[in-house]
Amino acid sequence: MDYTLERYPKIAKIKNFILHEDISISKSDGDITKHDHLVAMNLKIKNEQYTVFVDDEYEDLKKKDSVLNFILVFRSLAMIDDSSDFLEWCTQNSINPNSTKSLAYYKNICSKIEEIKLLFKNNTVDYFISDLDFQLNSGAIQLLRK
């Protein structure tokens, strides 16, 4: 029995979701690996590919952990989906709103989010960890960052 998964069922949920939806996430090695302070990630869901820029403030990508990568990518998607517009998203992420590159990315990913939301039973992007746990490094996220 895996006591870690028993103690942190959110980790098990993420792992099951990744397997069920055939999700793979990797750091982009292409030309657009950085954008402002964001890092480009390749998100593959079944046969669809997306580029998602994530804020790796806590250097979680260094762990090379599929669950942490999932949380970062889907947290970024949720933030975009929750933003009311481009300017709000820029403000939340300290991004220059005059950047045409940022606007192009925002428009492109917004056009893809609706199809991504269909993966979730309530049609809302979920990363299964609370923002409070993420920011305070507590609960399951603390275990993942060890």
Walk me through what this model shows.
The chain is α+β, with helices and mostly antiparallel strands and 146 residues long. The protein has one domain. 49% of the residues lie in helices and 15% in strands. The chain is built from seven helices and four strands. Strands 1, 2, 3 and 4 form a four-stranded antiparallel sheet that branches. Helix 2 crosses helix 3. The chain is globular.
Quick synopsis:
With 146 residues, the protein is an alpha+beta fold. The protein is built from seven helices and four strands.
What layout of secondary structure does this protein have?
Layout: H1 3-7, H2 9-20, E1 23-27, E2 34-35, E3 38-45, E4 48-54, H3 66-82, H4 86-93, H5 100-117, H6 131-136, H7 140-145
Antiparallel strand pairs: 1-3, 2-3, 3-4
Helix pairs in contact: 2-3
Largest β sheet strand count, sense and barrel closure? 4 strands, antiparallel
Low-confidence stretches: none
- DSSP summary: helix tally: 7
Rg from alpha-carbon coordinates: 15 Å
Q: Into which percent range does the helicity of residues fall?
A: 40-55%
The residue-averaged pLDDT reads 90
Order of helices and strands: HHEEEEHHHHH
Question: What general outline do the C-alpha atoms trace?
Answer: globular
Distance between the termini: 21 Å
Backbone structural class: alpha+beta
Number of strands: 4
Amount of beta strand: 15-25%
Overall number of structural domains: 1
Task: List the main descriptive attributes of the protein structure presented here.
146 residues, 4-stranded antiparallel beta sheet, 4 strands, alpha+beta, 7 helices, single chain
